[in-house]
Design a protein that fits this description.
With 237 residues, the chain is of the alpha+beta class. Helix content is 33%, strand content 20%.
Length: 237
């Protein structure tokens, strides 16, 4: 389901009418009028997005947060690079390797310590060295230093975990498998039930949401159970 469809499914659970939500934009149009005026709909839009971020934050090293591909591509005579992949939070340094576009084969590449790199730079030991990269260094400015300075185009490949993100468009979908998208619906209903002044209505919504959510979250945790816990010996950057 898309972001908008999840929001509308929450609304349908409340009133059963299948009403549409005109937009996921909580701002105002050029005339200064709200795109969405209904208070309940505004809460649904906000809470679905907040809960989406919360679930990602609670599962930072779950497999659905993991990506694998080209971290960045070098160009001749350039030393520093920003991750071309975008949204890179933590990199698994044991997964990194080099490939040349259009060629088979891989070359290992090691990760060096930034402080040691600076000391060697000050001593002049690394000045003007160019060639096939053998190491990369994570700089404090979130970019990467490649050594030696490459003379050819290389892809630096590896695994990384992404930053939690928010829904931006109505057509955006959660990054986990589709069979677990309803987690956002039922979690939002748990929050929304507190908005109802009629105790009977609130209790009905709460009980239904709890009943539907428990087995779904159990299956979700079982599928996405990988978590990096040994930070002291972690191979992460």
């Amino acid at each position: 389901m898309t972001y908008l469809e999840i929001c509308e499914s929450v609304l349908e659970e409340i009133n059963g009418r299948g009403d549409t939500i005109p937009s996921i934009d909580l701002g105002r149009d050029p005339n200064g009028d709200l795109y969405v005026t209904d208070p309940t709909q505004r809460n649904i839009i906000r809470w679905v997005n907040d809960l989406y971020v919360q679930i990602q934050q609670q599962n930072l090293y779950a497999t659905f947060m993991q990506e694998r591909g080209v971290l960045f591509t070098t160009v001749p005579d350039q030393m520093r690079y920003e991750p071309a992949a975008g949204n890179v939070r933590v990199v698994d340094k044991t997964s990194l390797y080099l490939t040349r576009p259009g060629h088979e084969g891989r070359l290992p590449i090691e990760v060096r310590d930034y402080a040691a790199w600076i000391q060697n730079q000050r001593a002049g030991n690394l000045a003007n060295i160019k060639g096939t990269p053998i190491s990369i260094i994570k700089a404090p400015q979130e970019d990467w230093i490649v050594f030696p300075v490459p003379t050819q185009v290389w892809d630096v490949n590896g695994d990384w975990w992404r930053e939690p993100t928010r829904f931006e468009e109505a057509t955006d979908e959660p990054i986990w498998a589709a069979e677990y998208h309803d987690i956002l619906k039922w979690r939002t209903l748990l929050l929304l039930a507190t908005e109802f002044t009629e105790e009977g209505t609130a209790n009905v919504i709460l009980e239904r949401a709890k009943m539907m959510l428990m087995p779904l979250e159990r299956a979700f945790k079982k599928r996405y159970s990988h978590v990096q816990t040994n930070y002291g010996a972690s191979p992460l950057l």
